[in-house]
Amino acid sequence: MTSRRVGLVVDTGAALEQRIDGGRAVVAMHVDIGGASIDNSADGEVYVRLRRGEKATTSTPSPGEYLAAFEQLTGVEAIVCLTIPARWSGTFASATVAAGMFRDCRDVPTVDVVETPTAAVAYGLVARIADALGAAGADRDAVLARVRSACDEVRMYGALETLEYVARSGRVPALVAGVSDALHVRPVFEMHGGGTGRVALARTDAGVLRALERVARERLEPGRPHWLMLFHADAAERAVELRERLLAVCDVASDETVALAPVIGVYTGPGAVGFAALPVHATDPPAVTQ
Questions:
Q1: Phi-psi bin for 118: left (phi > 0), alpha (psi -120 to 50), beta?
Q2: Mean pLDDT across the stretch 9-37?
Q3: How far apart are CA 135 and CA 151, in angstroms?
Q4: Start and end residues for every CATH 3.30.1180.10 domain found in the chain
Q5: Phi-psi region for residue 34, left (φ > 0), alpha (ψ -120 to 50) or beta?
Q6: What is the separation, in whole angstroms, between the first and last Cα of the chain?
Q7: Dihedral sign computed on CA atoms, order 33, 158, 87, 71
């Protein structure tokens, strides 16, 4: 049982631990390499096998898995379920079907499925503000309102070591990926409001870190505290250096560094690094971290 009024359901891409007694349920995303399922904590194994040329696939949790997560959160008035965009994953569809099944059986708690416009650590930051508000005793309306504003405000920046893996997903044309890799050019990207664009080009790891530092200095509102969430894919040392650079140029209220979950890492490939930033509101409770 939990004393919170609003429970939270996310998938493993949010990099939050399941705490049913704390009002938080996590639905597992599935990764398959070579016919075998890979545990979501086995990110190192994923990158070793990707480097060997093994092909990886991901599959969406079923409506039944989301329904089971909703049913585990007892004693709350409402449940907020966050997903990444429907165009990238079937999680929103599965969660929506499960919410309908749940409502057919009971009136309380209510279930709101929110399709966020972002993914990876930006999605993780939206999940954390929702979780922090829930833990502080906020009601459904307050949590949903802050989730919507966080979706509008959160920005993510990063760079991949190669476009090979994301090209396999069809999200980047193979020809573009091949030319980029042949020229040893690494686009530094921004994800905001459902769109993705290039903000810089770099050729080396050091160049990537300099570009990300410059982006933080120029694009994050000066003097306003931000929650930062850094990510890496088998590149922990680069994430440490990036954190030092960001702390030097940003007003940071809280920061956290995570290794990308395998379900994301199979698309980024090894070597990805970057961060997401969310401006802090005066009414925000302290950040929830792992």
A1: beta
A2: 90
A3: 19
A4: 155-279
A5: left
A6: 21
A7: positive
Amino acid at 248: A
| Distance separating alpha carbons of residues 250 and 252, to the nearest angstrom | 6
- What is the CATH code for 155-279? 3.30.1180.10
Buried b (16+ CB within 10 A) or exposed e, 54-67: eebebebbebebbb
Tell me if the bond preceding 279 is cis, omega within 30° of 0: no
Report the distance separating Cα 195 and Cα 186, nearest Å.
Answer: 19
Of 146, 154, 148, nearest in space to 195 by CA: 154
Domain boundaries 6-153, corresponding CATH code? 3.40.50.10170
Q: Using an 8 Å Cβ cutoff, are 112 and 148 in contact?
A: no
* Predicted local confidence at residue 259, as pLDDT: 92
pLDDT at 288: 62
Which residues are CB-contacts of 44 (< 8 A; sequence separation ≥ 6)? Answer: 234
From residue 188, alpha-carbon distances to 102, 184, 211 in Å are 42, 13, 7
Q: Which residue has the tokens 């960001």?
A: 246
Task: Please calculate the CA angle 258-260-262 and round it to the nearest 5 degrees.
Answer: 140
Q: Does the pTM exceed 0.85?
A: yes
Residues of each domain in the chain carrying CATH 3.40.50.10170: 6-153
Distance of CA 285 to the CA centre of its chain: 20
Cα–Cα nearest to 117, from 18, 168, 190, 31: 190
User: What would the pLDDT profile of 24-77 be if each residue is shown by its tens digit?
Assistant: 999 998 888 877 777 665 566 788 888 888 888 888 999 999 999 999 999 999
Reading the block at residue 287, the tokens are: 């950040």
Over the range 105-136, which residues count as b (16 or more CB within 10 Å of their CB) and which as e?
eeeebbbbbbbbbbbbbbbbbbbbbbbbbbbb
| pLDDT at 177 (0 to 100) | 40
